[in-house]
Amino acid sequence: MKGALVGWRRNLAVLWLGTFIAGMGFSEVMPFLSLYVGELGHFTRGQLTMYSGLTYAVTFFVIAVVSPLWGKLADRRGRKLMLLRSSLGMAIVIGAMGFVHNIWMLIFLRFLQGLCAGYIPNASALIATETPKESSGTAIGILTTGYVSGNLIGPILGGVLAQVFSIRLTFIITGVLLLIVFVLSLTLVHENYQPSPASKTAESGSLLSQFKNPTLIITLLVSTMIIQMGNNSITPIISLYVKQLMHNVGPITVVAGIIAALPGISTLLSAPRLGHLGDTRGTDRILVFGFVFAILMYFPQGFVSSIWTLGLLRFMIGVSDGALFPTVQTLLSKNTPVHLTGTIFSWNQSFQALGSMLGSLLGGVVSNWFDYNGVFIFTALSLLLNFIVVLIFIPSMRHPFKNKA
Q1: Contact in structure between 322 and 397 (CB atoms under 8 Å)
Q2: What is the pLDDT of residues 219-241, one digit of tens each?
Q3: Which of 28, 164, 309, 340 is least surrounded by Cβ atoms within 10 Å, i.e. has the fewest?
Q4: Backbone CA torsion sign across 152, 155, 156, 161
């Protein structure tokens, strides 16, 4: 028993580092991707906008489509194999982006990047299956801080690397970082994987029929999509909103960067504690708290007149993210048969990618219709609707203080 505990804790430590580097590597190229597109041709403003949008969107689209297929393969062949596939593939593809000289080659590589995605959900699935159930919430909460903190540092590091060296060299450096993730995963991650008999899957029928509560699974997946949609609807307009609040005076880009980073900082601080509370007090309670707190924090962001107030409210949003994302993953883990864990976590990634796409699109549309503050109100209303759906289709959520799920 003691050896088993050492095993899952070692996996958690290694995969925390792996997801940290992966999150940093994925995010450090994002701030200047549009600038890189502009270097690949002589485009009009409209063409640059179109090509930049396509370059961003193609990866999320492919992830949404192929994640369930990779998840099914993970359940047949093991999650560690998927970690190796993703980290090595991403290392090669992102590194190759530093050598392209036309926009269509970059878009093609972004397409391949979507095919190679899956490191973080498979790390979550491996931790969920290798960790004792009574500690799974804590473990997933800790793992969440890995890629959240990587995503926080990535844009800053990427900006510095691009400034000191070049955008092209930054892609190559990112590829090297992801190659390190591959080596760590290959040598230090251990999985006690036993493939399920093929007959078991065949006899079980459709995917949803193999769950005790398919409605709960669908509701949780849709919740992942809406929560991510809310987060991404803010991303395209946050710097413009900061500019408006500062009356176009002062270090706008610096302040916008800080405001954008605040939710990640509070998620980093809150996710492990909230995961532990979920294990000891009940995951239902944490999920209800996360929804209510997010709704209360999003609404006033549309009415603020001070950059300090916006910063405080954005910091609080990270607390709700620290409750919502890990808790949804924990509930998926606790309500999924072991032989389908990889499948369901990949479906979760697919819905998260759909949320990213919808958020970026709807954020732009809503801001054009109702100005920037309308985006925050739209997000709050979306989460309120999501919370109502959760209460309707997951009965235990109606009485969270009577349950310990």
Answers
A1: no
A2: 999 999 999 888 877 766 676 77
A3: 164
A4: positive
